[in-house]
Design a protein that fits this description.
Radius of gyration: 13 Å
Number of helices: 1
Number of strands: 6
Strand order of the largest sheet: 5-4-3-2-1-6
Low-confidence stretches: none
Number of domains: 1
Strand content: 35-45%
Helix content: under 10%
Shape: globular
Length: 99
């Protein structure tokens, strides 16, 4: 069994359609969290600068949801629910900023 990913710092960059966050693990690994159309994804990249991202499927660490949302624009979720559904853990002293 693999260790769960812990989120130590998070910045919410969009509230809905999609709900999304920039997040970092305790060791500084950047993660992009996004929920849109009933699907949540966790991607790993070198930085939050989208111009540096490789557009390959290898960036997706995990995904949840079936895309069968009640409507095609289902893109709102809270951080706690996102983390629960993705299997991520929020550190007890998580630093939160953003919207």
């Amino acid at each position: 069994m693999t260790e769960p990913i812990i989120i130590a710092r998070v910045i919410q960059t969009c509230l809905a359609c999609p709900s999304q966050w920039d997040a970092w693990t305790p060791d500084g690994q950047y993660l992009y969290l996004r929920y849109r159309f009933g699907i949540g994804t966790v991607e790993t990249h070198d930085s939050p600068d989208v111009d540096t991202w490789d557009l390959i499927d290898d960036a997706v660490l995990l995904e949840f949801g079936d895309g069968l949302a009640s409507n095609n624009y289902d893109g709102e979720i809270g951080l706690e629910e996102f983390c629960e559904r993705a299997g991520l853990l929020l550190a007890d002293d998580v630093q939160r900023t953003g919207n």
